[in-house]
Amino acid sequence: MTATLAPFPWTDVWGQDDAVETLRSAAADPASLSHAWLITGPPGSGRSTLAYAFAAALIADTPDDEQTMRQVLAGTHPDVTALRTDKVIITIKEARALVERSYFSPSAGRYRVIVVEDADRMVERTSNVLLKALEEPPERTVWVLCAPSEADLLPTIRSRVRPLRLREPDVDDVARLIVERTGAAPEVAEQAARHSQRHIGMAQRLATDESARRRRDSTLRSVLSVRGVGSAVEVAGDIIQAATDDAKALTAERDASERASLLRTVGIAEGQAVPPALRAQISALEDDQKKRSTRSLRDGIDRVLTDMQSMFRDVVMLQYGRGDDQINRELGSELAALATAWPMERTLVVLDHLAETRESLERNIAPTLALESLLVTVASGRKP
Questions:
Q1: The 80-83 sheet, strands edge to edge
Q2: DSSP string for residues in 50-108
């Protein structure tokens, strides 16, 4: 598949020609425009990129109003309001602020656009806050929600939006894109595309970060080495520690920058004691940073679980005699031995427990205990 290069602002939307055509038509013709959209697709498929390109096309006065469109894509246009979260969930307070904003008339553009990048992170009470706004929005307001799948949202939300499903690119397509963007060697890009399961952002990271590639390989080999409760506990601890270190590395610099910026804003010099009257602001910032760190840690653990799923999926495929579509070809001999040694039922038990573990982590189960339980199942073939 070779994607057609669409005109600005769609140039960064890759491999989604049908979706681009649908939204271009909607932006150009009010008769084709729905008041609320739900863009779904697998992680890395470009949901947010497409949402902001759509917002730019909606707000611009004409198809060649590039200045306005660039302002939208830069996040500085007053008529686009975006909600993305680094925390575990979107709060009711954030949802209410969005709803309030949605009733403002456009100040400069043709429409006011509300983009919710992580609509799947709304609990039921938060989703209910959006219902009326989605059902009866002002004439010139358009909502654009993004989520992995329609099933991630309440039926009441799904019934009020027009769905747009993005396609999943092929490994070879992603590899070519990574070569173009990063200059990575074709074999490295192909491996990254395969290991990321066609997640473009993750493929780009793997292709450009050798330590990430080594860490992934080491983690999967450690999982394969688990033989009993003792090694399950040890490997689980190593995985949690690695994910924690990654989360700290990703958030530490940003946390320090945010704190320094807040202190400058309120006129406190570096090293100066924080007056009691301002401690609440510092405490609120630290609370948000802790929530972001928790989300980052969970995302890191979820990536490990996704990699494990790909590995045991490969085992099942081998057991079905389908060895031509392996994600983890570099572990071919180890996985072939496992496919021979294990009955298929045991592999399916492990995959079931993997899915349950991912769901448990979303319900705030202690990550270490969840991983230990999972690895005991890997070692024994039975759930503890």
A1: 80-83, 112-116, 141-147, 36-40, 162-165
A2: HHHHHHHHHHSSSTT-HHHHHHHHTT--TTEEEE--SSSSB-HHHHHHHHHHHTSPPSS
Task: Dig out the tokens for 218 from the structure.
Answer: 């080491």
Find where tokens 């057609």 sit. Answer: 4
Q: How far apart are CA 102 and CA 309, in angstroms?
A: 40
Cα 184 to Cα 174: distance, rounded to the nearest angstrom: 12
What six digits make up the tokens of 223?
């999982």
The closest of 330, 314, 334 to 322, measured between CA atoms, is 314
Q: What is the CA radius of gyration of the chain?
A: 23
Q: d(Cα 11, Cα 63) in Å, to the nearest integer? A: 14
Cβ atoms of 325 and 276 within 8 Å: the answer is no
| Cβ-based neighbours of 219, under 8 Å, separated by 6 or more | 238, 239, 242, 304, 307
User: If you average pLDDT over every residue of the chain, what do you get?
Assistant: 89
Higher pLDDT, 128 or 14: 128
Q: Which string of DSSP letters, residue by residue, matches 219-249?
A: HHHHHHT--SHHHHHHHHHHHHHHHHHHHHH
Q: Can you list the alpha helix ranges (DSSP code H) found in the chain?
A: 17-28, 47-59, 66-73, 92-102, 124-135, 155-158, 171-182, 186-195, 200-208, 210-224, 229-265, 279-319, 332-341, 344-362, 367-380
Least confident stretch, 132-141, 187-196, 246-255, 272-281? 246-255
Q: Which of 321, 327, 376, 378 is nearest to 349 (CA)?
A: 378
168 has pLDDT over 90: no
Q: What is the mean pLDDT of residues 296-301?
A: 84
pLDDT tens, position by position, 313-357:
999 999 999 888 899 999 999 999 999 999 999 999 999 999 999
Q: What secondary structure letter does DSSP report for 122?
A: B
Q: What Å distances lie between residue 102 and 85, 292, 332, CA to CA?
A: 18, 26, 53
Residues 299-322: tens digit of each pLDDT: 889 889 999 999 999 999 999 998
